[in-house]
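Q: Fold this one first, please.
A: Sequence and structure below.
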Amino acid sequence: MSEQHNLTHSLSEEELFTYRQHGYLIRECVFNVNELVDLTASVERAVALAHDQSASGQAYQLDGKRFVDIGNTTVQFEYGDKNETIRVIEPAHHLDAFLEALVEDVRIVDPVKSIIGVDQVSVWTNKLNLKRAGKGSGFGWHQDSPYWIHDSDHVNLLPNVYLAFDDASVENGCLRVIDKSHLRGCLPGTSDGSQLGGFFTDPSCFDEKDQVLMEAPAGSLVFFDPHSIHGSEPNLSGNPRRAMVMTYQPANFPMLKTGEVRNVG
């Protein structure tokens, strides 16, 4: 990836307008096939390592879903007590050298600097979303800001970058975003009495008909606002839908889970 460092990948004024108007932006095929071979291999190494480490981690249940904390990393498994398929790992960059390098890649960092309007940013968090073929569960409609508002006083400045390691389609449960939902700020959660219900957006606050499918080829980037309502359907296809979501903030602020400062760019 080193050959990219002499280039600028900042967003154009037109791209910034689209992002600010709609709460999302897609850049297709930013990473090439050879890079994706290395990156998907690194993802699988990270998953295998997290799976091994989870055996000695702190396990707990929330709404019947199994989580394991390994130090500052949280691993979430697919539903079912005996299900050993990992669904989410957060944060994940430290689990493999390629993922460590990925969070500093200028093709990701330069656009983020454009969005925030700064010359340098730092890592807030990142996570691997692993929708395995035929068994990857969906994600309910939610905003990221309600998760983070108690840990950050600049929640408006936490843009997300979704890197698709596989082709993302309707069939394999692509990311979906409610158009322009970010313009309303942090919205209330559901009150269904569940442990995690408050983190899912109250359905009376938006119309599902406003959803836009983030269908994109492998190697594409989706930038989306922390207030954008987003979710996905289960993966019922025969193809995986692996992705890494990286979230940034202005420089010199600590990461969400570790408290460490990781400046990039």
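Q: Good. Now the second chain.
A: Here it is, same layout.
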Amino acid sequence: FSAILDGKKKMLLALATGTGKTQIAFQIARKFWNETDQQGNHPKILFLTDRTRLLGQAMDGDFEPFGDARHRLQTKKRTEFEMYFTLYQSLGVGKDEPTEEEPTEEETRLYKLYPKDFFQMVIIDECHRGASTEGGEWRKILKYFDDAIHIGMTATPKIEEENKDTFDFFGEPVYKYSKNQGQKDGFLAAYKIVRKRLSIDEDGYTPEAGELDRYGQPLENRTYTVEEFDRKIRI
């Protein structure tokens, strides 16, 4: 929080899985939320992630003390709340511009219905999974709400060939807590990582004949590869 008081707009928290990133984010958000303006209004905060499970854990777990100030943002613009939780997919990122036969702008670009200064803080969970690269899905949202304070959270340490852009965007972490330190302090058990590749990643995904997308349109009759997962198709 001291970095915010110093005027820093982009911050990165790098903590090993299981050592409390979401709880730290809650404490930062709570202090920030308590700073009301002259009219007594609380700042608007957006919690952004890409997994429904992570969203639920945050909204119904660590951020539960926000009570009725919380709202799960999905398909419609809402402005009466102060703590918003959403998937970047729900905001309409990653879709082509709509045509007359396709869904409306509200359904495809929900975040653009908000003024650019609507949110004063954006918290990005697991930010290494798409927020950082110039073409990354979340980067569009962060650029749109550029005036807000951006707090990225990741459990992945800096790996030049994999997530260099994350650190280029947010800067070096304002706080780091490694898995080795977590093991020494007794918060984490020692473990070994075994990398496996799923069969669907190896073979790709071929839709069945007549299978429809979320808008009721037939899926293209071809095999989608792992590079297209969560970009052109979600499974």
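Q: Anything worth noting on the second one?
A: The two ends are 38 Å apart (CA to CA).
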